[in-house]
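Progress report, Aim 2. The chain analyzed during this reporting quarter is listed below.
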Amino acid sequence: MPDMWTHLITGDRVLAGLEVDSWHAHVQEHRRVFDFGCQGTDFFFYYHFWPWVKDKSAAAIGETVHHERCRDFHQAVFAYLKSIKNTESYVLGVVYALGLLCHWAVDRNTHPYIHYISGFYDKNDPATHHLIANHKRIEAAIDAILAKEYWGLELHKVPANQRFDLGPELPAEIADIYAQVIPRLYPSLWVKQQPDCIQQSYKDMMHACRFFFDPTGIKKGFFAVAGKSINAAAYFYQPKLNPQADYLNRERRTWVHPADEHEAYDVSLDDLLYLSIAEAGGMIEASLAWLNDELHTESWLQILGNLSFSTGKDCDQDIELKHSKPILD
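Predicted structure tokens for the chain:
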């Protein structure tokens, strides 16, 4: 997936074009909540991220939402919000859910390209061991380029959670969404989780953002040696990038969908983000109309689509990602 800052930038650009004026004030009032929503369910990937903690079970929530019942997940989120429309939790919950739509739009459009240029690490295949954490390196590089261009930021000097730190605990309005939706959509997954997995995942993401903040480069230098086997240094934003790597495909080289070598493209990541912005805007406006009973459910679901975060294809399809051409060794 694109990393934190790319999602923030895309969310910012979506808001700039949003035509539902009545929600601008709500989003600006709760901007950190929207920005955290733009991180999607990725915060579950940080659950017990410390390598010595063996329980990584909540990461499966983030992984499953990215691949299974993708439209059902977002439909369930908004259905729950509609059920609490007359409560104080409604506005904050909707602001968060609008961010979720932005995250989905970006992932489903850009993921195939990022998979292709990252390659696939397989712990059982020594020929791929040099690709470990390549996906993260690509994401971080894209973040760094776009944040510099869009906001003039040097990301190794800025805490990653600067815009979406919501305090010591995840607000109950957001935690309640997951507590309602995940058990209903993914019951076999939920029974394997600890009761505090939602809050713990959020807290661990905030811990990780602080831990990997490394403006001096000391931590990165240490982990470049101590964590070489897992390429731990890839989790730090780099002050310098490989000048030979065309991370955003601005030279418009041909690339193929990782599941189908005959499905070729020459579009850049910029092009894919433009598409994501347009799709996210359409999904947001349709979802707000549905919440206000101004759009039939069937029309709303058709606009949402049912695309996998990972493949950009219908998530009901059984797709194997296998084609790639890594741009980093």
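The first strand starts at residue 255 and ends at 257. The chain has a mean pLDDT of 94. These observations will guide the mutagenesis work planned for the next reporting period.
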